[in-house]
Amino acid sequence: MATLLLDIVTTSSMLFIIAAGLMIILGVMKLINFAHGAFLTVGGYSAHVVTNAGFNAWLTIPAAAVVGFLLGIVVERVILRPLYDRPLDAILATWGLGIVIAQIITFIFGRGVQFAESPISGTTDLLSVGYSSWRLVLVVVALALGAALTALLYYTRFGLNARAVIMNENLARGLGIDSVRVRAVTFGLGAALACAAGALITPLLSIDPNMGLPWLVNSFMLVLVSGVAIPGLALASLLLGGAQVLVSTFVSPIIGGITIVVLAAVILRIRPGGLSRG
Amino acid sequence: MSALLNGSSHSVLEVAGLTSGYDAAPVVRDVSFSIDPGEILVILGKNGMGKSTLLKTIMGFVRASSGTVALDGADITNGPPHLIARRAVAYTPQEYAIFQDLTVAENLRLGVESDDLLEDRMGDVEAAFPRIVERLRQRAGTLSGGEQKMLLLSRGLIARPKIMLIDEISEGLQPTMVAKMAEVLKATKQKNGVAVLLVEQNLPFALSVADRYAILKIGEIVARGDAAHADTAATLEEHLRI
Q: Mind telling me which residue stretches traverse the membrane in this protein (chain A) (predicted)?
């Protein structure tokens, strides 16, 4: 029972961490970033490179975030910015980009499975069970991330500008806000979050060129259900992540793998606006 | 009249031969005027005559196909709106002009370049609209229509602009509120030498604040003159009726 509870909380935390980058890009840019899974993969390989080079495993996370931010800034400038007037093409472009990134990774690292060292290994005794320490770290990270994103959005000038751009881009521009820069920084931030998330989950999973793909699908469904809101995303992660763990435990892990997608479709059928909006 | 005769050397805003519109159809045609510091020019015209498009063209939201817009002598024609705004231009659009889901305070913060400036300048808002200062934490969308217009004008004032471009601020306001708006605009112009380009349909309001007027009809300026002139009201009435 304790294990089940911890599974639910840690799985939800993972989902939250992974979907956060997708959500902020959707919120500010009205863009579903289908390269999100590929960014996650890049984060995983960044972690692999860092620990393979003999650096401290804790460095994998900031290193992946930096790689992701730079990658995001370049992708926004080169691929997305020319397509802002054609939102559907921009979404397709991110899809294509995801494929290209996976191929480049395959070309450099091969198809095989890689590993990265874990900053913490072993188990911690909690609720009278020994539980994976790293999964518990992820809960702390998810809480910190939720707090940090809330602080960024609600207590900084960048956050205010970003919210203004979300609500009414032309009005924001007329008040001197450089919406192009807000978009660029947001995409960089979203990509940084995706890559950092990739590095954060590598201690639990093996790294391969398509490791991000199933996470892309789940994040996408989560964000559709949650809408653009941090508490909404937390709630959606708990609900859908919890359902996934329950189905995997009591029914079958295979069906558990599709729980999020199926349940999200059902929720959206009942509440087309998702959890956050009416 | 002096601005028209003396040329551009002192004018804050100078618009020359401006033509703009959507797709092939020009909405604003060959419009020229200039505004001096501390001067209020009102552009009058009925709906669909191109008043809002004129302001949007000055702000860079609508592309000018010919003509120029100069601010303090610098050419800003077809510049990006955010850079034009940062040159101390406060634009208050007619529709969707405030962020309904943000608080009053957040709306005001967006009027200044950095948050530090907000506290320094809160006195400006307090002097003009004390009611706005009382409602800083309230969501802007929950304000009454009149209060939203006060917030809109406050956001313009707090920018300490060189020029304000104001699109039909009097629309839908009760007479006492319209009088309050006129009072604030006149006080601002006198105190800070702010120039104002006002786009209006409300003739009494326009004449109570403006130094000069121009009539925009199907995108062209068909008449202009001194707002204080004795025959002005009758002439304008005539134009606006047709």
A: 12-35, 55-80, 92-113, 133-155, 184-207, 219-240, 247-270
What does the alpha-carbon distance between residue A89 and residue A105 come to, in Å, rounded to a whole number?
24
Structure tokens at A113: 């499975």
Residues B9 and B83 in one domain: yes
The ipTM (two decimal places) reads 0.88
Which of B145, B160, B175 is where one domain is finished? B160
Per-position b or e across A142-151, b if 16+ CB within 10 A of its CB: beebbeebee
Parallel/antiparallel/unpaired status of strands B64-71 and B74-75: antiparallel
Token pair for residue A259? 């729980």
Domain that holds residue B51: 2-88+162-241
Nearest chain B Cα distance for residue A278, angstroms:
15
DSSP, res A205: S
Work out how many domains chain B is built from and give that number. Answer: 2
- Numbered residues of chain A with Cβ closer than 8 Å to any chain B Cβ: 157, 160-161, 163-164, 167-168, 170-179
pTM of this structure? 0.86
B225 burial (CB, 10 Å; 0-12 / 13-18 / 19+) is: middle
Question: Token pair for residue B239?
Answer: 């134009």
Taking the C-alpha atoms of residue A264 and residue A215, their distance in angstroms, rounded to an integer, is: 14
Q: What is the nearest CA distance from B27 to chain A, expressed in angstroms?
A: 20
Each residue's pLDDT tens digit in chain A (278 positions)? 888 999 999 999 999 999 999 999 998 888 899 999 999 999 999 999 999 888 888 999 999 999 999 999 999 999 999 998 898 999 999 999 999 999 999 999 988 888 888 888 888 888 888 888 889 999 999 999 999 999 999 999 999 999 999 889 999 999 999 999 999 999 999 999 999 999 999 988 889 998 988 889 999 999 999 888 899 999 999 999 999 999 999 988 888 888 899 999 998 888 887 777 64
Question: Beta B40-44 vs B195-200: how paired, if at all?
Answer: parallel
